[in-house]
Amino acid sequence: MTATQRIAVGVVVAAACASSLAGCATGPHSSKKGVSGPRKGARAPQSVLRLIGDGSTAYTGSQPHLPRPERLKPGQKPPQFVVFSWDGAGEDSQKLFSHFRKVSRENRATMTYFLSGVYMLPEEKREQYKPPQHSPGSSDIGFNDEKGIANTVKQARLAWLEGNEIGTHFNGHFCGPDGGVGTWSVDEWKSEIAQAKQFVKSWKTNTGMKKSAPLPFDYDKELIGARTPCLEGQQNFMKAASQLGFRYDSSGVNEQVWPKKKEGLWDLSMQLVPFPGHTFEQLTMDYNFMVNQSGTETQGDPDKFDYWGDQMRDGLVKGFYRAYDGNRAPLIIGNHFESWNGGTYMRAVEDTVKEVCNKPDVRCVSFHQLADWLDAQDPKVLEKLRTLQVGEAPRQGWASFLSGSPAPAPKGVPGAPAVEQ
C-alpha cells in the first residue's frame, strides 16, 4: 500500500491549532552508549562576538557541538539516525522547551526546534505582521508577551549552544482553503519567510529589552529548513526555499526509506510507522496519533490517557527497530509542546528518546546534522541505500552490499583528495 493510500485510511494530516505556544501541524537489544551528545552547561564562544542589526542576534563563531560529518567507508554499515523535532517551539508556562533540552542532554541527543516567528513578536506590535491573504496583525496562534519572548529567547540561545538547531514554523499558522498556506504562491512564501526571520532578528527593538543577551547565531545563516503548518503548501514552499538557499524540508509524508532531494532540498519528511491495535500505519507526529484516538478533542477520556500514550510510544519504538534492524533509514519524528490528553504524548516522546538514543550506532541528531551527513556521502551509496524497502536489511550483509570503490569525497569531508597547491 502506498503512503498516500495509508494516509487516506488512517492518518489525518489536517488543521488544528492548540492554544498558547503549542502551534500545530497537522528481540532484545543491547543498551551500550551511543555517540556523544551535547555537554551540560554549554557556553557561548568567548573569542568572537559580533552583534548583528539591533543586537537581537550575533555571530559568535561556529556552533558548538556540531559534529563533523564523515563519509561511510566501503562496506560500512550506516548509523541509525533519529530526528526529534518540534513545531512552533516556544517556552510558555508548561516549560516543555527547557524540559526537552534536559532530556536531550541526559540522552546524548540533539534536536530541531522549529520556532514560530510570531512568538518573538509582542501582541501590541502585531500589526507589523502582514500575512499573505490575511489582514495585518492576523494570526491563528496569536502572538506573545514580553515574559514569553524573554523565556523563548533564553531557551533558543541555550539550545543552540548545546548543538541543537533553530529552524522555523513560519508565523500565523494559517491552514485550509481560505487563505491557508496551501494556497500561497512562491512570492507569498518568500514574504512569510522574510517576516519569520525579521521577527527573530528584531525582538530587542520590538520588546525594548535592549540589555538582554542576544541569540548567539546569524539567523540568515542558521535557518536552513522548516516544516509548513498542517503540512500544507509544500510544493510552492520548496520552490521558494530552494531559491533562498534552504537545504531541507520536513513537510511531507513518506515511508521509512532513505531520503532523496526534491527542488534541490533534502526531503526529510515524517514517516509512517506501525500503529499498535490498528491495521493501518500512523504518521510520526503527536497530533496525528491524537486525532486517531480522541478526534479533534484535545482532552478526551482520562481513563485512556495512559493507553493512548503507550500506543504512540510503542508505534515509534516499533518504527525505530524496523529501521535499526532493517534498512537503517533515518527515523523522522515531529511533535508540539502541548498537553493534549493529559500530556500523554509528551511522556511518549520522552520514553522514546530514552529507549532509542543510547543504543549502539544510534545518532539522535538535528535535521542540520542529518543534512550535513547526507551531503558528505557518496551519491552512489545513497542511491543504493534507497533501493532498500521498509525494514529491509541487505540479504548479503552490509559489508558486501556497500562494498566497492567510492567516489571522491567532497571538499572538506574526511577522505577528500588533497588540494593542489
TrEMBL record:
Q: Where is the composition biased (Low complexity)?
A: 410-421
SUPFAM superfamilies per UniProt: Glycoside hydrolase/deacetylase
What species does this protein belong to?
A: Streptomyces roseochromogenus subsp. oscitans DS 12.976
UniProt protein name: Lipoprotein
According to the UniProt entry, the coiled-coil residues are none
Q: Which UniProt keywords apply?
A: Signal
Gene3D superfamilies associated with the record: Glycoside hydrolase/deacetylase
> Which residues, if any, are the signal sequence?
1-22
Presence of keyword Signal? yes
Which parts of the sequence are annotated with region: Disordered?
Answer: 24-78, 399-421
Its BP terms in the Gene Ontology are:
carbohydrate metabolic process
Q: Which InterPro entries match?
A: CE4 (IPR052740), Glyco_hydro/deAcase_b/a-brl (IPR011330)
Instruction: Tell me the superkingdom of the source.
Output: Bacteria
